[in-house]
Amino acid sequence: MRNHTPVTEFLLMGIPHTEGLENVLFVFFLAFYLLTLLGNLLILLAILTSSNLHTPMYFFLGNLSVFDVFFPSVSSPKMMSYLMGQSRTISYQGCASQLFFYHFLGCTECFLYTVMAYDRFAAICHPLRYTVIMNHRLCTIMTLGTWMGSCLHASVLTFLIFKLPYCGPNEVDHFFCDIPVVLPLACADTSLAQMVSFTNVGVVSLTCFLLILTSYTRIVISILKISSSEGRRRAFSTCSAHLTSILLFYGPVVLIYLRPASSPWLDSVVQVLNNIVTPSLNPLIYTLRNKDVKLALRNALIQGVSTLGA
């Protein structure tokens, strides 16, 4: 057995083929990061201050906004730091933390979309029993289950990846630590970690997708039974924002984790869209066509301005 020096830090190489664009990328990341924080904090403000929004649907939307605040924070600050000329190195523990929180929050989003689909199913298919079905106790259990299940999922993946020995090279061909770019750096057999991570991500994503598909199949059948066109339009409009967010979420997951071949540049571009752009779009998706949220947000801002003026 040869002696190996364990890796104590990794070097983040950033987005491939973007040399000389550091300033442009910094402005891009900073703008979307600030937009994400502002948009999701405003949604949280509207939900917390308006009693009309204290319903299961907005309770889960508030959880999604919390996720959208934390998710881009996993990778954006470090990337913006080295785009400004700071060190590209990240400690071994920092790399493991990035991978854990990325998959913890990503799995949380997956579960949240599934829970939100069930909420829409209960509201449209069983409107008279909606408040009984989606009671406070069930919402609390589903939310706690979402976060705890995601923590277990991320813990298993992080343990499998970082129990392997890393003895060089230490260059991560990406702008943050994730399974497809960290695992090839291990100086041991990675077949078990590859199989389990692929299966784990695949099973979670596929199970959630099938549950969402089942809910929306039942929803579409119920909507088509509505006699008035106005009623059908209103029912579809309540689901359109959720469906748009689901498409934006599942597209990158399939492209990055569930395809056989890997392309570093394509993976980086897709990850930028998934990590930075999509969380900034969710507030727009959920507020542009939602009169209740817009009204609550307007009232909250007016009340805040009045308080400051007084």
From TrEMBL:
Any Pfam family the entry gives: 7tm_4
Domain G-protein coupled receptors family 1 profile residue range list: 39-286
Location(s) in or outside the cell: Cell membrane
Membrane topology field: Multi-pass membrane protein
SUPFAM superfamilies per record: Family A G protein-coupled receptor-like
Keywords of the record: Cell membrane, G-protein coupled receptor, Membrane, Olfaction, Receptor, Sensory transduction, Transducer, Transmembrane, Transmembrane helix
Entry's transmembrane regions: 24-48, 60-80, 100-118, 138-162, 201-224, 236-258
InterPro entries listed in its UniProt record: GPCR_Rhodpsn (IPR000276), GPCR_Rhodpsn_7TM (IPR017452), Olfact_rcpt (IPR000725)
Function: Putative odorant or sperm cell receptor.
Protein name: Olfactory receptor 10D4
The organism of origin for this protein: Equus przewalskii
Organism ancestry: Eukaryota, Metazoa, Chordata, Craniata, Vertebrata
